[in-house]
């Protein structure tokens, strides 16, 4: 017996959405979209939607208005299209639109270390370089012992290359390495930009991924902004910012975790 | 180098993230509404019928906390309660309180603000929201029933229809259809509003420079007006809106509180949804009280934060 087509739009919509959710979870696309805490919800939703689709397939036909079938299929298509069209990271426009005046204040809300300690274990690797995230350097702001423990140390960080600082301030030899910090989902991700003093490779594209090695020092944010030409809000006079004096930089492939959480 | 003012990839990254984040909560809300619908004990319903107006309002607010429904899921239940003779102020208290007080909304608010004093935000949202609910319900209780209820709202719904060409259905199938049909309808109808809200939010999120927005956001008098307008425009479900509020760090907590309180009580989506129960005049009255109430509460909170006592 050929099943009636009447229920198929609903079944198809539920199955499409369920598959889209499961695909986002299995393919790890969810890591660029949501905080890890929410990932199990995505998998669970995928399973529930597929189960619902199977149940509706087994049930007898119901009179369902055509506009509802159209709405359901349209919504499933929109979800599918949005997931297919979503890139792995933001462009320089999002960076320009979302740049915050004080990343260290942002990180305090993120639960940055409250305790100041010189023994904040920054352990160098075999080459004598401390591997860090950009956010680690900003988390030390306002914690004198942590800043002292990092000041003058050779560190290695990765981030997306942002040449806008150079473009805006002619003669400046600074650029930014940027990481987007996710709170709940990509929609609320905020950029954390580390000022790097030095000349980047000429072939490095804007917002391309790069790894930089250099020496950390801290300087007044107003001074740093004047050098890079960025920031429209006046930082407090005593507000400091980490700056990396570049020793080497190279382009790298996109990392697995494009966002920091 | 930045060129142009809008980036489609950025828009879709933000849009997909909001959908992937919001839809699971919508599904949880729809399942919750189904469970409430199936398992609400008849004895509780009889108890509601015997309550006086004040106790009824308190019961309605408490039910909002105990039975996890968002604003869209609550309306069919409220319609059913009204048809069964539950006094309108009691049912309306539940309708207004459920999206604010339900555990999914509270949990998502906590999650969204978990790095920014989450319990404070949750309690402020709950407290300010229930205060507005009380104002709305007392206003409705002061009116005559016929004035408040839309004509025809008390009619019994039709039974589950099946296609004339299909085979006769068993009692189990009928029960499953009666349960799952409304669940799917609830889910998709609210998802529609989430999609529209997420699209608008993503557009603003990715195309508006936040330094420009900060000019409005930094004004304690204008920012609650902006956030209440935004909440009503976005029409995002109360189980999801906290994530959007958390993505607006340029606004102060009082302005975000206005967003979190006003959105679940009245938005563009509810402008239509409420008309299933109330006449238009009453819907306008609800909008007026929710909008002005949320803004005034945010102003008062801003004044408190600015006061030397608090500092």
Description of the molecule:
The complex is a heterodimer of chains A (261) and B (311). Chain A is α/β, with parallel strands linked by helices and 261 residues long. Chain A has two domains: 8-85, no CATH class; 92-260, Beta Barrel (OB fold (Dihydrolipoamide Acetyltransferase, E2P)), CATH 2.40.50.140. In chain A, helix 1 packs antiparallel against helix 2 and helix 1 (8-26) runs parallel beside helix 3. In chain A, 38% of the residues lie in helices and 20% in strands. Chain A starts with 7 loop residues before the first helix and ends with a strand. Chain A has nine helices and seven strands, in the order αααααβααβαβββαββ. Chain A has helices at 8-26, 39-58, 66-85, 92-98, 103-109, 134-139, 144-150, 164-168, 221-228; strands at 130-131, 154-162, 174-181, 190-197, 209-220, 240-251, 259-260. A five-stranded mixed beta barrel of chain A has the order 2-3-4-6-5. Chain B is mainly α. Chain B contains 15 helices and no strands. Chain B has helices at 8-39, 42-50, 53-66, 71-83, 88-101, 103-112, 118-141, 145-148, 171-207, 210-217, 222-234, 241-246, 253-265, 268-273, 280-306. The radius of gyration of chain B is 20 Å and the shape is globular. The model of chain B has no long low-confidence stretch (mean pLDDT 79). At the A-B interface, helix 1, helix 2, helix 3 and helix 4 of A face helix 1, helix 9, helix 10 and helix 12 of B.
Approximate strand percentage of chain B: under 5%
Give the total of domains of chain B.
1
What's the architecture of the largest domain in chain A in CATH terms?
Answer: Beta Barrel
Chain oligomer state: heterodimer
Task: Tell me the number of strands of chain B.
Answer: 0
Helix content of chain B: over 70%
Distance between the termini of chain A: 52 Å
Shape of chain A: elongated
What is the mean pLDDT of chain B? 79
Provide the residue-averaged pLDDT of chain A. 82
Count of discrete domains of chain A:
2
Structural class of chain A: alpha/beta
Q: Give the amount of beta strand of chain A, in percent.
A: 15-25%
Low-confidence blocks of residues of chain B: none
> What is the tally of beta strands of chain A?
7
Query: What is the CATH topology descriptor of the largest domain in chain A?
Result: OB fold (Dihydrolipoamide Acetyltransferase, E2P)
Most strands sheet of chain B? none
Distance between the amino and carboxyl termini of chain B = 43 Å
């Amino acid at each position: 017996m050929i099943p009636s087509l009447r229920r198929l739009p609903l079944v198809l919509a539920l199955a499409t959405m369920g598959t889209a959710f499961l695909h986002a979870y299995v393919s790890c696309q969810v890591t660029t979209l949501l905080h890890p805490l929410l990932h199990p919800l995505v998998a669970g939703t995928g399973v529930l939607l597929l189960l619902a689709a199977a149940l509706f397939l087994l049930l007898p036909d119901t009179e369902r208005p055509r506009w509802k079938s159209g709405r359901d299929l349209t919504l499933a298509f929109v979800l599918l299209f949005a997931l297919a069209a979503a890139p792995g990271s933001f462009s320089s426009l999002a960076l320009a639109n979302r740049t915050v005046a004080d990343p260290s204040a942002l990180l305090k809300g993120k639960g940055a270390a409250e305790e100041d300690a010189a023994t904040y274990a920054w352990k160098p690797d075999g080459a004598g370089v401390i591997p860090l995230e950009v956010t680690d350097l900003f988390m030390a702001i306002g914690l004198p012992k942590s800043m002292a423990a990092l000041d003058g140390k050779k560190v290695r960080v990765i981030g997306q290359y942002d040449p806008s600082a150079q473009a805006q301030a002619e003669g400046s030899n600074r650029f930014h390495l940027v990481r987007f910090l996710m709170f709940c989902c990509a929609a609320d991700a905020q950029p954390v930009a580390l000022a790097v003093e030095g000349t980047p490779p000429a072939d490095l594209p804007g917002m391309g991924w790069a790894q930089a090695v250099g020496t950390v020092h801290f300087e007044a944010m107003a001074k740093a902004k004047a050098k890079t030409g960025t920031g429209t809000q006046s930082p407090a006079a005593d507000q400091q910012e980490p700056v990396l004096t570049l020793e080497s930089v190279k382009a790298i492939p996109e990392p697995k975790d494009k966002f920091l959480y | 180098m930045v060129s142009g003012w809008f980036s489609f990839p950025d828009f879709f990254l933000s849009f997909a993230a909001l959908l992937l984040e919001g839809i699971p909560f919508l599904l949880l809300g729809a399942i919750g509404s189904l469970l409430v619908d199936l398992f609400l004990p008849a004895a509780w319903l009889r108890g509601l019928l015997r309550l006086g107006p004040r106790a009824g309002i308190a019961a309605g607010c408490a039910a909002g906390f105990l039975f996890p429904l968002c604003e869209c899921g609550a309306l069919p239940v409220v319609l059913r309660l009204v048809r069964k003779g539950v006094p309108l102020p009691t049912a309306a208290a539940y309708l207004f309180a459920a999206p604010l007080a339900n555990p999914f909304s509270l949990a998502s608010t906590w999650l969204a603000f978990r790095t920014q004093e989450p319990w404070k935000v949750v309690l402020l949202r709950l407290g300010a929201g229930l205060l507005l609910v009380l104002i709305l319900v007392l206003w409705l209780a002061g009116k005559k029933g016929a004035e408040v209820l839309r004509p025809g709202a008390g009619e019994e719904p039709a039974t589950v229809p099946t296609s004339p060409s299909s085979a006769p259905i068993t009692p189990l199938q009928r029960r499953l259809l009666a349960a799952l049909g409304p669940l799917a309808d609830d889910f998709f109808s609210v998802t529609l509003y989430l999609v529209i809200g997420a699209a608008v939010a993503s557009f603003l999120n990715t195309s508006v420079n936040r330094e420009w927005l900060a000019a409005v956001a930094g004004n304690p008098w204008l920012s609650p007006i902006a956030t209440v307008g935004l909440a009503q425009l976005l029409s995002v479900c109360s189980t999801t809106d906290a994530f959007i509020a958390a993505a607006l760090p340029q606004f102060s907590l009082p302005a975000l509180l206005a967003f979190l309180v006003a959105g679940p009580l009245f938005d563009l989506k509810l402008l239509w949804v409420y008309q299933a129960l109330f006449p238009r005049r009453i819907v306008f009255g609800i909008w007026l009280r929710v909008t002005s109430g949320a803004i005034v509460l945010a102003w008062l909170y801003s004044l408190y934060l600015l006061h030397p006592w608090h500092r």
